[in-house]
Amino acid sequence: MIPLRDNIPSRTFPLTNVSLILINSIAFLYEVSLGARVNEFVMRYGLVPVRFFFILKHDPFNLHQAIIPIFTSMFLHGGWMHILGNMIFLWIFGDNVEDRMGHGRYLLFYLLCGVSAAMAQTFTHPLSGMPMVGASGAIAGVMGAYFMLFPTARILTLVPVFIFLQVVEIPALLFLGFWFLFQFANGLFSLGFENPLMGGVAWWAHIGGFAAGMTLVWIFQRRHRRKRYADEFLPW
Questions:
Q1: Which 8-state DSSP code applies to residue 131?
Q2: Suppose 206 and one of 2, 140, 154, 202 were both cysteines; which one would form an S-S bond, judging by CB atoms 3.0 to 4.6 Å apart?
Q3: Is residue 70 a part of any domain in this protein?
C-alpha cells in the first residue's frame, strides 16, 4: 500500500520535516556521486551491529566510532526506491506530527526514534556484519506518533488488487495498524535466519521505531494543541 495524502491540513509550515527530506535527498545524491566507492562509504557510515559491539567491548577509547554511525546511518539509503518510499511516508505523516510538537521538539523526537530503531535492530541481531542504512526507523517513529494522535484520520492510498491499482480511503488506525503488524510478523520470521536484513529490510528497526514513537509522543507533543485538532478531520 502506498499512501498518497491524508485529510489533515497542517497549521504551520513543516520546516523541520522539509529540512529532513532535503538532508536525506542531498545525502543520497552524494552517495550516487561516489560511484564504486559507495560501498566503502556505506560500510563506514552505516551501522554494523557486530562492529558496534566489538568497539564497546574491546575499544572503548574510540567509542565515537560506534556512536556516530547510529546517526549517520539515518540519512543514508540503499537505492532510489528506498529513499523515494521513505520520503513519501515522511512527507505525508511528518507534517502533522511536527505541527503537534513544534519544530525543535519534532527534530529531537525524530532523532530519538531513529536511535531507538537502530538499537532495536542491533540488539536483535548483534552478530550481523551487514550495514544498516535508511531513515525508515525514524520515520516509523513518526508513524507511531501519528497512529496515537490521529487514529480517525483518513489516508488516500494506492492499493494493488490483483493486477490493478485502486485508490481508496483507509482510516489511519487500519493503515498504520496493518503496517505495524506486517513489520512485526516479518520481524519474528527473521529471528530464525542468520541474515537479519531479509529482502533488504531491517524489520526490527521498524518495530522499535514505531514503538518508540507511540511512547515518546506523549512527552513531546505540546499539550495546548490538543483541542485545536478536535475538528481537523475534514472531507476530501
A1: P
A2: 140
A3: yes
